[in-house]
């Protein structure tokens, strides 16, 4: 028998992500694929957003939620025979772990990918003793 450490915060993140993904999918019609990786210093998110100018993408943090939204517009080029790519507005939201400093989040655009770095804050890991008066 092996023991598996249960992480209630991970369960809550999964729950919120499933809820917001379903809500966003219903509202927007399409969502860019995202990869989420973690190392000792940060979380890294890479969104597939080919064909979208960086001016049409917005990244925001509000009350512990990271939201990436934008719009891919379709150019009319004569008669259309087939459309397989999705167009229109999208929005994806993710709950941030407590150890992320929203003011330190960085975003860059590279070859059709929106890449976000969410640095971890070491200060939040240390317990703080509160004196009872």
UniProtKB/TrEMBL annotation:
Residues 25-133 form the SHSP domain. The keyword Secreted does not apply. Coiled coil: none annotated. Residues 69-89 are annotated as: Disordered. It comes from the Bacteria. The keyword Heme does not apply. InterPro entries: A-crystallin/Hsp20_dom, HSP20-like_chaperone, Small_HSP. Pfam families: HSP20 (PF00011). Keywords: Stress response. Residues 71-87 have a biased composition (Basic and acidic residues). PROSITE patterns: SHSP. SUPFAM superfamilies: HSP20-like chaperones. Belongs to the small heat shock protein (HSP20) family. This is Heat shock protein Hsp20. It comes from Gallaecimonas xiamenensis 3-C-1.
